[in-house]
Amino acid sequence: MLRVNSDEVAAYRGPGFIWLHVDTLEEADLAALKGQGDIPDVAANALVATETRPRCDRIEDGALVNLRGPAEVETSDSDRLVSIRMWVRQGRVNSVSRRPLAALRPVLALMEAGKILDPGDLVAAFARAISKQLDPEVAALGDSLDDAETDLEPHQVYKLRTTIARIRSEAITYRRFVAPDRDALLTLAHLDFDWLAEEDRLHIREAADRFSRMTEELEAVRERAALLHEQLTDMRGEQMEVRSLILSIVALIFLPLTFITGLLGMNVAGIPYAEEPWAFWGVVGFCVVIALAISAYFARVHWLRR
Question: What is the value of pTM for the model shown?
Answer without folding.
Answer: 0.73
